[in-house]
Known about the structure:
There is one protein chain. By secondary structure, the protein is of the alpha+beta class. Helices cover 52% and strands 19% of the residues. It has a 5-stranded antiparallel β-sheet with strand order 1-2-3-5-4. Strand 4 and strand 5 form a beta hairpin. Bound molecules: adenosine-5'-triphosphate (ATP) and magnesium ion (MG). The site of magnesium ion has 5 residues, from helix 6.
Amino acid sequence: xxxxxxxxxxxxxxxxxxxxxxxxxxxxxxxxxxxxxxxxxxxxxxxxxxxxxxxxxxxxxxxxxxxxxxxxxxxxxxxxxxxxxxxxxxxxxxxxxxxxxxxxxxxxxxxxxxxxxxxxxxxxxxxxxxxxxxxxxxxxxxxxxxxxxxxxxxxxxxxxxxxxxxxxxxxxxxxxxxxxxxxxxxxxxxxxxxxxxxxxxxxxxxxxx
Length: 209
Ligand SMILES: Nc1ncnc2c1ncn2[C@@H]1O[C@H](COP(=O)(O)OP(=O)(O)OP(=O)(O)O)[C@@H](O)[C@H]1O
Ligand SMILES: [Mg+2]
C-alpha cells in the first residue's frame, strides 16, 4: 500500500470499524481504477467526494463533516510540505540529497521505479556541483499538473560548463569521470533544461511520478 493509502486508512479507522474502513477504501480505489499501492496525494481531490458518498452510510452529518474536513485538509496540506531546498557543497551532501529526493517521491506516492530515477538524477547533479563548483543548491518540489511529478532545480555558483554542446551531442571525453552524468540525467528526465554561463549553471528537470 502507498503511504497516502495508509494515511487515509488511519483517518478512516478513527471514524469507522477497522473492517468497514478497509472495505470502504478498497471499494473506493477500485471504483476509481487506482491500485492501492499507487494511490498518491494527486488522487485525493477525486477520492474525497467518493469516500464521503460511502461514509454517509455509516456516519451522522456531524461526524461525516468532520471526516471530510480532515481528509480534505490532508489533501491541501501535503504539497507545501514536499518542497525542499538542499545546500550542496560537500561529498556528504550528495547522499543526503539522494535520500531526500527518494523520500519526497515515496511520500508523494510515486512508483518506486520513478523514485529511483529521481534519486539517480539528483545524485548526478549533486556530484557535479561538489566536483566542479564552489557549491550550490538543489530544490525539489512535487507539482501536480496533469500528473504528479517532481521538479528538480540544481543551481550552482561555478564558472559554467564550457563543453556543453559536445557533452549533449555525446562527443565529450571526460578527464574526471565517465562523462555520462549530464546525458544520463537528460535521458532519464521527462523534461530537461540547462542554462550555463560564467556565473554558474542551472539544470531544471521534471520526472513524472
Ligand atoms: N555544474 C557544473 N559546473 C561546471 N562544470 C561542470 C558542471 N557539471 C559538469 N561539468 C563539466 O561537464 C563535464 C561533463 O559532466 P558529466 O556529469 O556529464 O560527466 P563527468 O562528471 O565528467 O563524469 P560522470 O558524471 O559520468 O562521472 C564534467 O567533466 C565537467 O567538466
Ligand atoms: Mg558528473
